[in-house]
Amino acid sequence: MGARCTSVVAVIIALIFIIISTALFFIGFTDFKPENIKDIGDLKTVVDAKPELRKLPIIDVEKFLDDNKKNNFKIQYPNKTLITKGSIYTYPQCQYLELSMSELKDEEKLKGLKPNLDEKNKIQIMLQKKPGDGDLFDFCADNSKLTMIKFGFMGAFAVSIVMLLVVSLLTLAVIFGCCAKFNLPMVIVIIAFIAFFSAGGGLGAFVYGTVNYYVLRGLESKEIAKEYGFPEQGNNLFYLGGCIAALSSTLVFAILMTISCSQRRREIIDDASVGGRPPRR
Q1: For this UniProt entry, which segments traverse the membrane (predicted)?
Q2: Is residue 155 part of a domain?
Q3: What are φ and ψ of residue 23, in 5° steps?
């Protein structure tokens, strides 16, 4: 099998992985079950889910404040107006819902209700980094570490996508016999591995930022977050599966193009050894 045939196989296998990855991302976005609500868009039903499937953990304000009376916690708007009822979620940012957890079970009250991400609905959750610490800090305040992780994740995958687009164009050039005297698959392999490591770095940042979310927000440890009554933080397995499929796509593509690179090198040597014979296409 020549370099062109290997390149075609690489494109086909990579395409299959990309389709799987896209499907997993779509399922994760449309059918993902957070801790307490089945459908993030309509908020129809309150359900339970495993921590690793958690995306939007809901906290009942009244219960949370009651459980932390000794710590003097406060939930308030930026204008210092106190919030004593309703529910909140803290990931990926802090937002307030007027309905309590018990009211979220009432489908009539849920009609038309959606989480409001407006700036005016932002809240402050004033906590201690650990019990008995004394000083309160705003758990929901803008966080430089989380911002760096977010932009690192987005930047890494943006670089990976651009690299994959370049690789796709170069692979088409190989398939159609362009640059026959040049080992183009070698260039493709280098770019493909750059895309792979870039995507891997982005995935690592995503997992780290999600699993350590409460600590990055300012709490001393995940155990303290659990003690305060925060739901255990986890990852959306569909998103993780999509990321892994995308990484697999890049890795398989890079490996096959490495084989294609070796084949193309032999073809160039064979063509050069035959005097006056044009390069193999």
Answers
A1: 6-29, 151-176, 188-216, 237-259
A2: yes
A3: -65, -40
